[in-house]
């Protein structure tokens, strides 16, 4: 019987709840101990099937095990179900929990594939524990957006309406589901129509200055947005590429 192990941090430290999915015992225990020392509550799993069991137990529950997580650290080469399939399934089911991939595969293609299936960051083995902790903290900072102190106006452009306070987007009369990053990118574009944004500028405004991942994650998110906004994503009318410079809206 497969099971998840939970290890709590010091009661005065409540930095977040992290699931570490790693089949190599030494790496799993080392990461677990480092996170606990930093003040995180840690759950561990040694294979992909354990995560699927967690997901299935969560179906139909408003307070599911997955939604109670603040971050998932996910190895790619796992027994039974690999990390890419887990990442893809979590995103398909609508879970927006940040995912940090760990992998011995460090080529550009491998990193792009990981980002395309929904990961937020990608760290290549072997890695330094200080860098891992820094990436965990950076992901959590970006994911926990502050509550706005003012009421931003509703943004409209042709057939698209964005409601900042409600985190809702309506396209051609139908509400669409966007991830937090997709929503922030679209809000930035609609607040500055026709302005050209470079990848670095988008990363600075949406991911933050402490982002340590690949800039190609911008291209991945733009493609996802086009699939949700455009009538024909291969011939976009809203999100346009300005070759040699970046992207603009409208």
Q: What do you see in this structure?
A:
- This protein is α/β, with parallel strands linked by helices and 250 residues long.
- The chain has 2 domains: 5-143, Rossmann fold; 155-249, Arc Repressor Mutant, subunit A (Orthogonal Bundle), CATH 1.10.10.10.
- It is 38% helix and 20% strand.
- The chain has 8 helices and 13 strands.
- It has helices spanning 25-38, 48-58, 83-92, 108-116, 129-143, 180-191, 199-207, 216-229; strands at 5-7, 17-21, 41-45, 71-75, 99-103, 121-124, 155-157, 160-163, 168-171, 174-176, 196-197, 239-242, 246-249.
- The strands form 3 sheets. A 6-stranded mixed β-sheet has the order 1-3-2-4-5-6, sandwiched between helices.
- Helix 6 (180-191) crosses helix 8.
- Mean pLDDT is 84; it is low at 9-13.
């Amino acid at each position: 019987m497969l099971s998840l192990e939970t290890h709590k941090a010091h009661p005065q430290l409540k930095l977040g709840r992290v699931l570490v999915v790693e089949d190599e015992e030494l790496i799993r225990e080392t990461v677990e101990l480092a996170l606990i020392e930093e003040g995180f509550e840690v759950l561990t799993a040694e294979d992909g099937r354990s995560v699927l069991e967690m997901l299935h137990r969560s179906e139909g529950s408003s307070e599911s095990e997955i939604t109670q997580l603040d971050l998932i650290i996910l190895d790619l080469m796992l027994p039974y179900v690999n990390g890419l399939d887990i990442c893809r399934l979590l995103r398909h089911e609508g879970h927006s929990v940040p995912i940090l991939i760990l992998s011995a595969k460090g080529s550009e293609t491998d990193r792009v594939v990981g980002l395309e299936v929904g990961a937020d960051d990608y760290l290549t083995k072997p890695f330094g524990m200080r860098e891992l902790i820094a990436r965990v903290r950076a992901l959590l900072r970006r994911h926990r957006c502050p509550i706005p102190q003012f009421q931003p106006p509703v943004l409209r452009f042709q057939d698209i309406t964005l409601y900042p306070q409600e985190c809702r987007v309506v396209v051609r009369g139908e509400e669409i589901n966007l991830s937090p990053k997709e929503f922030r990118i679209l809000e930035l574009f609609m607040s500055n129509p026709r302005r050209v944004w470079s990848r670095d500028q988008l990363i600075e405004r949406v991911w933050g200055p402490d982002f340590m991942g690949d800039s190609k994650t911008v291209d991945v998110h733009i493609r996802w947005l086009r699939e949700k906004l455009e009538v024909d994503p291969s011939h976009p009318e809203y999100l346009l590429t300005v070759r040699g410079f970046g992207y603009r809206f409208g």
